[in-house]
Amino acid sequence: MRIRNVALFAALSVLVVTGCGKKQDKGAKASKNAVSAADSAAAASKMPYSLKEGKRLYNHYCGVCHGETGDGAGQYYGLTPSPANFTDKAFMKTLPDEVLFKAINEGSASVGKSNMCPPWGNSFNPEEIEFIVTYIKTFTGS
Length: 142
Ligand code: HEC
Hints:
By secondary structure, the chain is an all-alpha fold. It contains six helices and no strands. The protein binds heme C.
């Protein structure tokens, strides 16, 4: 009987110790998340409306293929050809604003590429496409 109690006590203290450890980890993670959420909220509030709106539309409609960081590695990375990489400075230099606008508005086939990027002209008005163009150009960091 006594031995059993000791064993039970030992088992319980292991549970309590590991339980507490987990809780602390969670707490630390949550506060880290809170800080980065606050950071990005602060960054977002300083963004001009055109960029904020461009980012919102891009993340919603384009990120799945082009990646949220614009590197072309979204969820559908396996497409052939792969989605354009907007962080590639040399590539982006070959695409003036009018070409970006046309490619988005009428689809990649309209600028002599494959038809893998659909035309978005029915989903967005020209102003929204301009916002997206402005946002896409921030991915090269210049
Ligand atoms: C279904 C996946 C998919 C989605 C969603 C998508 N794209 Fe694309 N996009 C592609 C692929 C694939 C290419 C590469 C086409 C090629 O090179 O032939 C591409 C190419 C492009 C290009 C480069 C065209 C050029 O001249 O090389 C631009 C600009 C572009 N996409 C913008 C967008 C924008 C803006 C959105 C959101 C509104 C978007 N794409 C959504 C797959 C996608």
